[in-house]
């Protein structure tokens, strides 16, 4: 019985450390203005980008095509990454793995065909 209780001591210590961390961070963020007072200045309020002085408005509208192409690249790139473990374990997976990879590539090509038919990659 005593040995069972002592086996839970590391878990209790972990809970205590976690709760003390949460309490400390809440305390510091609640009293951060007292502990770390703000000193505003004109220099701190300026934007800084690679040492270049800002000019103009940063809220310039741009085409949604950039975001769409980036998302499509990430999606298809991640899907291609899934082919690497299959290529490494090709012999161990056998015919079943080959059929599953053909299904995966087929679904990938159907998605790519859909993207092309919708004209998502056409630039105007």
Please report which band the strand proportion falls in: under 5%, 5-15%, 15-25%, 25-35%, 35-45% or over 45%.
Answer: under 5%
* Number of H- or I-type helical stretches: 7
Task: Return the average pLDDT rounded to an integer.
Answer: 84
Give the overall shape. Answer: flat
Gyration radius, in Å: 28 Å
Could you give the distance between the termini? Answer: 75 Å
Structural class by SSE content? mainly alpha
The oligomerization state is: single chain
Give the biggest sheet: none
Percent helix range: over 70%
Uncertain segments are: none
Number of strands: 0
Topology as a string of helices (H) and strands (E): HHHHHHH
Task: Tell me what the structure shows.
There is one protein chain. With 124 residues, this protein is mainly alpha-helical. The protein contains 7 helices and no strands. The longest helix has 29 residues, at 90-118. The mean pLDDT is 84.
Descriptive tags:
mainly alpha, single chain, 124 residues
Write the layout of secondary structure elements.
Blueprint: H1 2-6, H2 9-30, H3 32-35, H4 42-45, H5 65-81, H6 83-88, H7 90-118
In short:
The chain is mainly α and 124 residues long. It contains seven helices and no strands. The longest helix has 29 residues.
């Amino acid at each position: 019985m005593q040995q069972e209780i002592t086996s839970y001591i590391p878990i209790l210590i972990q809970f205590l450390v976690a709760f003390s961390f949460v309490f400390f961070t809440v305390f510091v963020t609640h009293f951060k203005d007292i502990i770390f007072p703000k000193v505003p200045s004109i220099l701190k309020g300026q934007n800084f980008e690679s040492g270049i002085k800002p000019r103009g408005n940063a809220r310039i509208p741009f085409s949604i095509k950039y975001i769409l192409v980036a998302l499509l690249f990430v999606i298809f790139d991640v899907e291609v990454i899934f082919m690497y473990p299959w290529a490494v374990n090709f012999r161990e997976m056998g015919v079943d793995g080959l059929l599953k990879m053909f299904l995966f590539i087929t679904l990938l090509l159907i998605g790519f065909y859909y993207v092309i038919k919708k004209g998502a990659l056409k630039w105007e």
